[in-house]
Amino acid sequence: MWILSFLPDWIFHAIVIAGLVAVIVGTFLKSMPIINNYSLPIKVIGYIVLALGIFLEGGLNNEKVWQARVKEVEEKLAIAEAKSKEENVKIETKIITKTQVIKTRGKDIVKYVDREIVKYDTKFAPGGICEIPKEFIKAHNDAAEEPK
Prior knowledge:
- The structure is a single chain.
- The chain is mainly alpha-helical.
- The protein has 4 helices and no strands.
- The protein has helices spanning 3-6, 9-28, 39-116, 134-144.
- The longest helix has 78 residues, at 39-116.
- It is rod-shaped, with a radius of gyration of 42 Å.
């Protein structure tokens, strides 16, 4: 109820009290002969105001319950965000470590290729076809495996 956000809580309590007072006053006006003609309209208006006040009190109570739930969820969210930040740091550390392993492994493979495969640069098979050395195949397969 949007009206609950604009009005202070005491107004809703005052509406309930005004309805109760109107019902009680309307009941006692029957005993006064001069103004007993107004007792029925005052009682009817009192019951309507009382019903409206009880409805608004229920809405106010419901709003307070929802606000409490929102605060509870916000607290849980803050805890989850803190845990998420911790996990992100762990994940970033793992990624940095894996990246360093991959770079180091790549440098090792390049060194190996430079050292072993250079031996075969001068060997060509007849007809311009070069042979593929076993070391090249091994280096290629080793590069495709996961780091240990």
